[in-house]
Inverse folding.
């Protein structure tokens, strides 16, 4: 049996060596979208309090004008949103070590992520560790599971990247197109190219999503920070009244479910449902017009919580 | 916890280490606990269902022994009814209610059938059949009742084959749980190799083909022609690789622990008749149905009409076993019809085949060559102008083949070529029949299946066949099928695992790493095994 165990260990070690070697030691594109994680953590470390930390997926990166929030509230802003595939567990984990008194956290998770049992993330959970190895420190068992689930997929992507490097065009997602707050600007002056995917809006969040909210709420309380919930934008086609009705009914039920968390909610979910004219390339990514409209709606809704505004108009 | 998840690998490693670390007398306890844990990972409450089935078959088997024939029959009937009752409630009730409701609506009866809100327990059909098989074996006197409740519970719930088979026989598996298993290097490594091959088939072949199949089946009515043919062809290989992969992982993991499970697949796509196909596909279910249903019905030792009725009963029920949907029932029935037609036409088919190939053998080499050259020339000059590119390709291929035949005619290996052609045509027809049947298997409704049959041979052009996949992705789908079939071709000459043993260490390790690398580079994303839902 000893011979067998030694052979297994050697075999597994060889497999892991080429797996890890390809994933972590092949050259990387430092301007790739996911590499922006480095800048976000730098912002998180360096931005002084009082500050508002926005967490969520890519809808936050594409649809937020942090400068507007900064001007309206007088607080510094850190926009941590950049990729839905990281999973809501990771969004929560990565800010927890940086929280302190004077921090306001606004969680704006895409509706789909609240329905997804895979809260630990997808392939980006591996990719993020290539650029920011410290991300391992934030991993919970859910992230570890996701990491091992998606390690082979990342291995393939990295190999494919070597054999068929994609040409970088100006309009693809790039790290350099984020501003200093973490808002993505690369799409603002580009013609929309909307791809419509199914709208997934749960009536009730998954138990795992509830765990994440509750964990973050407790952490904020412990560290003297304050947590709010806001809603991500979502697209419904202008003429599709049946879908609008269905999504409205779902959002009402989802709101009731979220109220049970005991976390203050900014605005009504219905206020962030927009037509296709306001979107760029996916049902969550707002274009310049959508971004402006959403920010006005968000700031309007934030006024129900005067404590968010240090600077009165 | 699916076989294709990292959790299973961890679970299996822990179970294997614990198994060999524990003294023999405690191993069944550990395996039983592991099996229940494995099953209850999906839904803890469904552990009670297995327990219920176990209690029923344990008690009935013990009661059956030393009873009069009439009492035995009564107990057996009660046990079978209870087991099938659970299966009916959890798997078939809603199907039954929907069907009755459809009938009520048809005859304008204003009555609503209540529906049950259950999630189908994973593998319920598998362990129910395995359990019923045990009681019938005791009833027939093929084995003594198992007095050790724990061992019987382990037989019903043994985790490698619990949720998707193979459906084991009590006479084969149960005695193995009492054997003292020792660590056997060759057996363990053989088991691991089989598991690795199973992972390859599932992750690289089945899940990749599923991309195409699922894309078509999201809305099949927007396609016609080649995409529909390719989707159903890919589905045939997808389901084979998916299900046989599960069986390989189940058999391999059992083998690591020292237990032998029966083979479930034997290169079905190399079968030359539809009868042979069903002796190579899902062997454990087909032999179960043969032994516990077909033979009690009289098998083929009855009138010809009754024999055909028996075949139809067995295959229709095998369809229903797969799923509570009319499409599954029709799939099963269609396969029964194929078998009956195959029996009815066997003499004529053989006569036609002999006539055809004798004719081919008589054609002089020069005529083959001439016809071949003419076909190739016609393809080259006519394609695109006088007929379509597709027709040109087919004509060109036929021409090349005729040229080859003309060449072979002058050589000593010509009889082998003729035999090969006979075999190829037989395999092609058999597999095509299965693929046609697979339309019912994959279609979500009869309406879709009817659309499928009505449109799959319309507008046959290569244009749009890739349905949005790029060339590399599309080619990869054919390539992975080719890899599986090359392995099968090698397997005709014996077990690959045994062949590997003869090779030097470096060669073996290089091949193992090629397989692992192939899995890593070829897997797309992990999907649930199809047969879990049965």
């Amino acid at each position: 049996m000893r011979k067998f165990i030694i052979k297994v260990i050697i075999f597994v070690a060889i497999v892991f060596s080429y797996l890890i070697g390809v994933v972590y030691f092949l050259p990387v594109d430092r301007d790739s979208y996911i590499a922006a994680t480095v800048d976000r953590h730098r912002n998180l470390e360096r931005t002084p309090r009082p500050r508002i930390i926005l967490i969520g997926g890519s809808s936050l990166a594409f649809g937020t004008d942090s400068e507007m929030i900064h001007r309206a509230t007088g607080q510094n802003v850190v926009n941590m949103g950049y990729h839905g595939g990281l999973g809501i567990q990771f969004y929560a984990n990565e800010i927890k070590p940086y929280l302190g008194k004077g921090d306001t956290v606004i969680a704006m998770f895409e509706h789909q992520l609240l329905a997804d049992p895979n809260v630990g993330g997808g392939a980006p959970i591996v990719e993020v560790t290539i650029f920011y190895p410290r991300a391992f420190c934030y991993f919970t068992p859910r992230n570890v599971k996701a990491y091992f689930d998606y390690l082979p997929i990342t291995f393939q992507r990295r190999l494919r990247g070597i054999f068929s490097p994609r040409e970088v065009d100006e309009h693809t997602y790039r790290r350099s197109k984020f501003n200093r707050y973490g808002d993505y600007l690369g799409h603002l002056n580009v013609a929309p190219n909307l791809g419509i995917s199914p709208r997934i809006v749960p009536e009730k969040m998954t138990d795992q999503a509830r765990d994440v909210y509750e964990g973050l709420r407790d952490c904020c309380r412990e560290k003297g920070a304050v947590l709010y919930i806001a809603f991500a934008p979502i697209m419904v086609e202008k003429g599709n009244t049946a879908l609008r009705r269905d999504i409205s009914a779902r959002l009402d039920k989802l709101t009731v479910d979220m109220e049970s968390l005991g976390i203050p909610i900014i605005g009504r979910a219905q206020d962030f449902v927009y037509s296709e004219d306001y979107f760029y390339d996916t049902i969550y990514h707002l274009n310049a017009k959508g971004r402006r409209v959403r920010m006005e709606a968000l700031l309007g809704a934030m006024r129900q919580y005067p404590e968010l505004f240090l600077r009165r108009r | 916890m699916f076989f294709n998840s990292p959790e299973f690998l961890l679970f299996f490693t822990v179970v294997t280490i614990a198994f060999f670390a524990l003294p023999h007398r405690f191993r069944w306890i550990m395996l039983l606990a592991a099996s229940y844990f494995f099953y209850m990972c999906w839904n803890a409450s469904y552990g009670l269902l297995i327990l219920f089935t176990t209690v029923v078959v344990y008690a009935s088997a013990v009661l059956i022994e030393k009873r009069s024939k009439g009492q035995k029959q009564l107990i057996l009937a009660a046990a079978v009814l209870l087991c099938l009752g659970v299966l009916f409630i959890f798997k078939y009730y809603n199907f039954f209610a929907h069907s009755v409701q459809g009938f009520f609506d048809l005859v304008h009866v204003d009555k609503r059938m209540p529906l049950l809100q259950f999630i189908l327990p994973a593998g319920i059909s598998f362990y129910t059949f395995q359990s019923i098989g045990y009681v019938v074996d005791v009833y027939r006197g093929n084995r003594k009742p198992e007095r050790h409740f724990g061992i019987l519970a382990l037989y019903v719930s043994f985790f490698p084959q619990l949720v998707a088979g193979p459906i084991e026989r009590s006479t084969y598996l149960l005695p193995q749980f009492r054997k003292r298993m020792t660590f056997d290097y060759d057996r363990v490594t053989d088991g691991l190799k089989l598991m690795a091959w199973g992972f390859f088939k599932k992750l690289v072949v089945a899940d990749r083909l599923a991309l195409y199949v699922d894309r078509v089946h999201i809305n099949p009515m927007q396609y016609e022609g080649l995409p529909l043919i390719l989707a159903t062809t890919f589905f045939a290989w997808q389901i084979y690789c998916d299900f046989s992969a599960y069986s390989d992982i189940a058999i391999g993991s059992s083998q690591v622990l020292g237990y032998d499970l029966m083979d479930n697949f034997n290169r079905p796509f190399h079968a030359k008749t539809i009868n042979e196909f069903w002796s190579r596909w899902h062997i454990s279910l087909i032999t179960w149905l043969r032994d516990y249903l077909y033979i009690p019905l009289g098998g083929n030792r009855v009138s010809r009409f009754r024999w055909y009725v028996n075949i139809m009963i067995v295959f229709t029920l095998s369809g229903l076993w797969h799923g509570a949907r009319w499409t599954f029932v029709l799939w099963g029935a269609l396969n029964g019809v194929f078998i009956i037609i195959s029996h009815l036409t066997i003499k004529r088919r053989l006569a036609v085949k002999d006539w055809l190939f004798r004719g081919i053998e008589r054609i002089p080499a020069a005529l083959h060559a001439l016809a071949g050259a003419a076909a190739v020339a016609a393809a080259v000059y006519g394609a695109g102008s006088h007929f379509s590119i597709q027709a040109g390709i087919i004509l060109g291929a036929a021409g090349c083949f005729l040229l080859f035949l003309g060449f072979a005619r002058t050589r000593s290996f010509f009889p082998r070529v003729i035999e090969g052609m006979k075999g190829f045509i037989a395999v092609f027809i058999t597999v095509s029949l299965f693929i046609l049947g697979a339309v019912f298997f994959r279609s979500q409704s009869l309406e879709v299946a009817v659309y499928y049959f009505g449109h799959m041979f319309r507008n046959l052009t290569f244009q749009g066949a890739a349905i949005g996949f790029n060339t590399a992705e599309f080619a990869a789908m054919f390539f992975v099928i080719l890899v599986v079939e090359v392995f099968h071709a090698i397997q005709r000459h014996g077990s690959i695992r045994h062949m590997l043993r003869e090779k030097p260490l470096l060669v073996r390790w290089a091949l193992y790493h090629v397989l692992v690398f192939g899995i890593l580079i070829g897997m797309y994303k992990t999907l649930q095994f199809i047969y879990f839902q049965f």
In short: The mean pLDDT of chain A is 88. The two ends of chain A are 76 Å apart (CA to CA). The first strand of chain A starts at residue 51 and ends at 56. Chain A is about 45% helix and 10% strand.
